[in-house]
């Protein structure tokens, strides 16, 4: 049977979906996953899409699949989703868990809303979940409890700001814990870095540039079975450079070889590298090399 997508447009819809009573706040809520009734939980014939940001903590019995491997990390995992992402429900036995959801309108007009995009893990894939320790779990639970307490009281002009402060604190903790995870999984990440470098070399040492143009971040992420955001964050943590920066550096490296080893003009080399416009090539080259392509040739004695 074809999967059906259940649309959840509001916090009220989410409560109805989980048979969890009426929400205390129209734009934000926390659901105790130990005390919910999920329809068709084991049928596998439905997916759901929310018009909400979600942060979901789950503690499972046994090992958890992470990428193509399994880890015995029973303390728990956290997933983050942005509005309109399609999610598959889990039929695994949950020992403990909570589900924080808030509508984008809850961020409107706030300083926090303006910097919310920095939390790139809202666009990670499910196999890139955050695994947390018992101490980390308790730290986050304390913050979640304060959020729940705040919206359970009488709502006043301070409510939104105080809850947003706690959500920001929660996400900053998660950002810290992700930093830890990027380095504690160094063996697996080293393999990914090596595979990425090999993919870069293969792409730039073939005729692919001429045929398909400059590769997008998504191209390498899909080859590595990762989300674009996760790959860029992983590279940034380990190398200090994003995926796009690595692509541009490889472009400049190849451009230098062409500028030194061929007589083609800048426009010809730009097209050979997959650029549609020579001016874009010149801008990228100057940003990374510090000089324009013509200045580079002159510095190396190739122009009078």
Task: Explain how this protein is built.
The structure is a single chain. Mean pLDDT is 85; it is low at 62-73. The protein starts with a strand and ends in a 5-residue tail after the last helix. The strands form three sheets. Strands 2-9-4-7-10 form a five-stranded antiparallel sheet. Strands 1-3-8 form a three-stranded mixed sheet. A two-stranded antiparallel sheet has the order 5-6. The chain has helices spanning 11-17, 111-114, 134-152, 159-184, 186-204, 208-212, 217-223, 228-239, 243-261, 266-272, 278-289, 293-299; strands at residues 4-8, 28-32, 46-50, 53-60, 64-66, 69-71, 77-81, 86-87, 94-102, 130-131. Helices cover 47% and strands 15% of the residues. Strand 5 and strand 6 form a beta hairpin. By secondary structure, the chain is an alpha+beta fold. Helix 9 crosses helix 11.
């Amino acid at each position: 049977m074809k999967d059906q997508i259940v649309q959840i447009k509001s916090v009220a819809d989410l409560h109805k979906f989980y048979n969890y009573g009426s929400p205390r706040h129209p734009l934000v809520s926390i659901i105790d996953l130990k005390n919910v009734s999920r329809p068709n939980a084991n049928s596998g014939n439905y997916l759901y899409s929310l018009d909400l940001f979600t942060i979901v903590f789950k503690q499972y019995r046994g090992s958890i699949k992470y990428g193509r491997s399994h880890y015995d990390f029973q303390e728990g995992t956290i997933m983050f989703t942005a509005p309109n992402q399609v999610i598959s429900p889990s039929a695994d036995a949950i020992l403990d868990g909570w589900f924080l959801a808030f509508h984008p309108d809850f961020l409107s007009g706030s300083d926090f809303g303006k910097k919310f995009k920095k939390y790139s893990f809202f666009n990670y894939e499910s196999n890139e979940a955050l695994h947390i320790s018992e101490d980390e779990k308790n730290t986050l639970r304390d913050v979640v409890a304060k959020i729940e307490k705040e919206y359970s009281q009488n709502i006043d002009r301070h409510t939104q700001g105080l809850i947003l402060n706690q959500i920001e604190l929660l996400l900053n903790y998660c950002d810290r814990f992700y930093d830890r995870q990027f380095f504690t999984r160094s063996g697996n990440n080293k393999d990914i870095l090596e595979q990425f470098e090999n993919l870069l070399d293969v792409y730039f040492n073939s005729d692919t540039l001429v045929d398909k143009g400059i590769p997008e971040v998504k191209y390498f992420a899909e080859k590595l079975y990762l989300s674009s955001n996760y790959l860029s964050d992983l590279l940034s943590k380990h190398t200090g450079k994003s995926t796009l920066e690595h692509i541009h550096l490889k472009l400049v490296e190849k451009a230098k070889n062409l500028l030194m080893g061929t007589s083609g003009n800048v426009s010809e080399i730009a097209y050979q590298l997959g650029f549609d416009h020579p001016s874009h090539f010149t801008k990228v080259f100057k940003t990374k090399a510090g000089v324009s392509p013509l200045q580079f040739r002159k510095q190396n004695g190739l122009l009078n």
